[in-house]
Write a structure and sequence with these properties.
Strand 5 and strand 6 form a beta hairpin. With 275 residues, the chain is an alpha/beta fold. It has one domain: Cytosolic phospholipase A2 catalytic domain, CATH 3.40.1090.10. The protein is globular. It comes from Mucilaginibacter gracilis. GO terms for molecular function: hydrolase activity. InterPro entries: Acyl_Trfase/lysoPLipase (IPR016035), NTE (IPR050301), PNPLA_dom (IPR002641).
Length: 275
């Protein structure tokens, strides 16, 4: 039995998790807020940081546990490009960490169905992984082109799924009755940019958000914390703050969406009957 799926709820609930570097930790806060209120998922899709959150959550780790793993194992630092590198780096240095915490390394052994998006660099197309080696799919989805060497899977070169779709809602359409989107790349209005790094980060966010609305309309509710634009994608010291921002935004989403409130209310009634 899948503990992340509510067998007593006829609605199949899916959640899509965007990419966004360390800002993706907000997904963990969102997941914690939703699961604390009895919401269970039949399907999760994610890209880049969202793929990490999806895989670890589907493996059975609680969101707070995943946050601790990320902090203690310095996962995002392993995914951070080395300053002064003269060539493409290998992202495979994070492979052992994924296998350490998810030793079965299999989509089939996960407790919830997940889809991980990546881009086939050779064919120039978006690819959705639902089977095969889990670690390679995660790393392919996180593989920033131009910084990391592409991940090779079955003689194909794969890079970050966010290039073509940073908010992979489509795998949930037709498979879920209710779709939640968690996006961590809200673009705030600014009047100045104080560093080259921030300029690059903002340019990337603008490109990422250019097609965001076409994906948002596929969701029944979108959770998009507005405070995350102030954090860089490698601002690892802010992980706890980002987590709490996601958690609070998840609670606000429940209060602000009648369908979510109804799902939570139904869960509470069921729990009382079982007590």
């Amino acid at each position: 039995m899948n503990p992340n799926t509510d067998q007593n709820n006829s609605d199949k609930i899916g959640i899509a998790l965007s990419g966004g570097g360390i800002r993706g930790v907000s997904h963990l806060g969102v997941l914690q807020a939703l699961t604390d209120n009895g919401i269970r998922f039949s399907h999760i899709s994610g890209t880049s940081a969202g793929a990490i959150a999806a895989a670890f959550f589907a493996a059975g780790y609680a969101p707070k546990e995943i946050l601790n793993i990320i902090r203690e194992a310095k996962l995002f630092k392993l995914l951070r490009p080395a300053i002064g590198s003269t060539g493409l780096l290998s992202i495979l240095n994070a492979q052992h960490l994924i296998k350490q915490y998810i030793p079965h390394n299999s989509f089939k052994e996960l407790k919830t169905n997940i889809t991980i998006s990546s881009v086939d660099l050779g064919e120039g197309r978006l690819v959705y992984f639902t089977e095969g080696d889990l670690d390679l799919a995660i790393l392919a989805s996180c593989c920033l082109p131009g910084i990391f060497r592409p991940i090779i899977i079955n003689q194909h070169m794969y890079v970050d799924g966010g290039i073509l779709n940073n908010f992979p809602v489509e795998p949930l359409v037709g498979n879920c009755d209710f779709i939640i989107g968690s996006s961590c790349n809200h673009l705030p209005v600014v009047t100045e940019i104080t560093s080259f790094g921030k300029m690059i980060d903002r340019a990337a966010m603008i490109a990422i958000n250019s097609s965001l609305n076409t994906h948002k309309i596929l969701c029944d509710v979108v959770i998009e914390p507005h405070g995350l634009g102030d954090y860089g994608i490698f601002d690892t010291d802010a992980a706890e703050e980002i987590y709490m921002i996601g958690y609070e935004e998840g609670l606000k989403a429940i209060e602000g969406n009648e369908r979510l409130k109804a799902i939570v209310k139904a869960h509470k009634k069921l729990r009382k009957r079982k007590a």
